[in-house]
Amino acid sequence: MHITIAGSGNVGRALAGGWLKTGHRVTFATRDVAGDKAAELREQGFGVVLLNDAATSTDVIVLAVPWAAVEATIRSLGDVAGKVLIDTTDPLKSGRELAIGFGDSGGETVARLAPSARVVKAFSTTGSRNMADSNYPGGKLMMALAGDDTPAKQIVMALVADLGFDPIDTGPLAMSRYLEPLAMLWINLAYTQQLGPNIGFALLRR
Prior knowledge:
- It is a single chain.
- By secondary structure, this protein is an alpha/beta fold.
- The protein has one domain: Rossmann fold.
- The protein has seven helices and ten strands.
- The chain has an eight-stranded mixed β-sheet.
């Protein structure tokens, strides 16, 4: 599968590395295709295209930018009609707080900004270190996701599983209202409570 990632920070690179290892074709979409960072990405085996070419000849687009850059990034992606758009972002403001409460969500905001895309919320409830290495001795970490398009969610669940996570479909995209606070809980435990980033959530069954 061809996956194009908008955002080459910790989250984007962690996801890209895992998918490349599992046989996917991974491209980064950026505003600068000629700089040192672009050259480094190419050396690592990734494609690099301009942001406005992100939707060209790709199966999945991953939004992995800071919340403040979400709107401008989406408007620069090109024609995303019918594309699976994975929203990994959390609507954070300064002070490690959510900018959006339970009456709306970042995921729903992304869908309004890209109404023709098939938006799935995923990879928003844990840190990039877990995305790069999801292995824990006690079992698989869960990766909760939400979306209104069932076939799109099935594609994302397969990509989640490729990275070693236990994919959990929580329902429609409006469930992002509860997934984003779960991200805040992880951030609080990892950094405010100083448990560190090598922690994660799991769903136990019996």
